[in-house]
Structures are given as C-alpha cells and as structure tokens.
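>> received
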Amino acid sequence: MGTIIAVLQDSETKEVLMVGNMNKEAVMNTLTTGLVHFWSLSRKSLWLKGETSGNLQLLQDFKIDCDGDAILVLVKSQGPVCHTGNRTCFYRDSSSLNLTSSLS
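>> returned
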C-alpha cells in the first residue's frame, strides 16, 4: 500500500472537515490508538492530527469505499481542524477560487 485518500468527517454533523493521505502506518496507528494519523506527502513523514495544536481527532468509525481507494474517517473533533483556525478546511466557496493558481 502506498498512500490512500482519507476524508475526515464529523461523526455527528457529517460535515467534511479535511482531506489528507494515509499510508499503512497511519492507518494502523489510527486504528490502534483511536487518534487520527496522516502521512505527509510533502514531508514524507507520519503525523498525528492535532499533535501541535491540541485539537486531536478521536476516531469514531472507519470506512473504506467500494473501490478500496479512499477512506472515510468519522471523528469527534477536539477543536478546529484547519491550520487557519477554522472548524473545517472547507470554509471557502467558489468565489474565492483562483483558477489560474488553484488548478495548475
């Protein structure tokens, strides 16, 4: 297993909080500790979501899609998920999309 897309979703509201990547180690750490871990593609390292901010993501459920190429991670969030301080990384709408830089 290389990496797989992981969608983080609030287990109660069903709001999508963020999208990240997991490798085998991140999946195993998430399932065994109950705390969500990701694999950083840019840093090429494992990281515990909320380790620095204290906004840990508590695993509630874990689902794999029908093709086995994406994971849905349902969580109880201990605070804002986005590095900007927003509850979710999906707080911007299409009016803030810069097609020249966002899709290149």
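>> The chain has a mean pLDDT of 93.
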